[in-house]
Amino acid sequence: MPKETSKDIFHLIKCLTKSEKRYFKVNYSQGKEGGESFYVKLFDAIDRQREYDEKKILATEDYITHLPTLKGRLYEVILKSLAEFHAGSSTDVVIYRDLHKVEILFNKALHEQALKLLGRVKIIAESKEDFVSLFRVLDWERRIYIASSYSSALEKKNSELYIKEQEYIKKFSNLSEYKQLWDNITRALKVQGLHSRSEEEQRNITQIIESPLLASEQNALSNKAKGLHFNIIASYEFSRMNFRNALLNFEKRIEVIEHSPGSILDHPLVYISALYNILVCYQGLYDAKGFYTIVNKLRDLPSKYPSFKNSTNIQMRIFWQSYMRELEMNITSGNYERALSLINIIDEGLKQYGDMIPGDKISVFYYYFALLQFIADNKRKSLYWLNRIFSMGNKAEVIVKALAHILLLIIQYERGDADSLEYTIKSTYRYLYKSRRIYKLETILLHYLRKETPNLNNPKEIIDSFIRLKVEIEEIVKDPFELNALANFDFISWLESKIENKKFADVAKVKILQKMNSVKAVH
């Protein structure tokens, strides 16, 4: 079997901004003979392609003698160009570069100059709580004092450095413990989904939140630890669907970031994710005003921070996170028309960012597209998006594939496709059981479609069976963990639409309005 052609160079070039491409061409345009560089020629040839095709490159670019070698060198040159272009945009880079300068000054015995520069590095590293760099700063201070005329003060200085080092170690260890708690809760939520599906899953989350570290924010010894403290508590509250408490803690997380010097520019993706979490809470509270305030804040970030325009990754994250939430907000609020109008906009964005968006996120978009088309009674388009999910294989989110199986069952039932329905029921049950994503509600639905529907002979029998099924489901969802199963598809509204011969969208909107009023009354 032939080895698959590497597309790394293609993806790298395609994610470059116009400014980054311009910088590369200006600085690497000259070849050894004074003509145009082979690097730039190959760069342009690849950049012109919509899909990577090495055979076409070899057929049109006659200067190439060995493409793999030239590709490898071009890849390294582009990375070098990017490093130069972004040299001053990250304090991590500044610290690394200045510590290298300290080493150079030390090797030339310019100890006073080295200490002066080291003092500047220390201020930057302390402001961003970069404990790893701070340990290196202390190490260089020791080496300079040992090697220089300052050795007479070495004993006192060693004592000071030891005290400072212990302080950094304590803060570093504290931060590490918070990171472990954060990893534990995110892992648990990844397995179970945003909301607990059983008492056991909720117990796993509760054990994490009962850590003594989370008893008070005073236990967090650094801003980074404090941010994680609020994030962990907020995530716990969100898993319990306590959106108001979750929002309060996510907002405290934002305050920590916005009041930490350089934090947004140094860690833009952390800031974007923090704003995204606030969107989730406003969505749960049905607070459209607060929601769109944050959506606009997210989308305005590249204007407020011009360096963000040079990062395709940042723009991609802003795109998928803001549109994911806007799509969900309109679905959960019953604004289906607005949600449907977003499909083409989002699909174009998915094409633009290509492989940069993780498959599990893309599968969520596809499920919402399928659900919206089902609600709009366009089953053909709904099936199109469901098939897009199934064709993704393991790249699709496990929970999304489970929901897609259920929605496919309902569509096949409504279309009267008995042959396909029998097969899909079996495959759906196997998938849900294997992935451990099966609720009692789903089990009942599968049983109903497989055992009862074939024996129904007239409309009255069908309506009566729907009524019995609705009563059974209403009894089950009194269990709060089973109630979560309705978060992604409202089975009860679907049944009522069949019983009352109404549109599913109309019935669902009435339920949503009742829920919105209930939530707003509580909060």
Question: What's the structural blueprint in terms of helices and strands?
Answer:
Layout (H helix, E strand, L loop, with lengths): L7 H7 L3 H10 L10 H10 L6 H7 L6 H19 L5 H17 L3 H17 L3 H17 L6 H39 L6 H11 L13 H17 L3 H16 L4 H4 L1 H17 L3 H12 L1 H4 L7 H21 L3 H18 L5 H17 L3 H12 L7 H17 L3 H18 L4 H13 L6 H18 L3 H4 L7 H9 L4 H19 L1
As a whole number of angstroms, the C-alpha radius of gyration is: 29 Å
How many helices does DSSP assign? 27
Q: What's the β-strand tally?
A: 0
N-to-C span: 62 Å
Secondary-structure element pattern, one letter each:
HHHHHHHHHHHHHHHHHHHHHHHHHHH
Main sheet summary: none
Report the principal-axis shape.
globular
Low-confidence stretches: none
Mean pLDDT: 84
Indicate the proportion of strand residues: under 5%
Q: Tell me the structural class.
A: mainly alpha
Q: How helical, in percent, are the residues?
A: over 70%
Supply database-style keywords.
523 residues, mainly alpha, 27 helices, 75% helix, globular
Fold and architecture overview:
With 523 residues, the protein is mainly alpha-helical. The protein contains 27 helices and no strands. α20 (379-390) packs antiparallel against α21 (398-414). The relative contact order is 0.05. The model has no long low-confidence stretch (mean pLDDT 84).
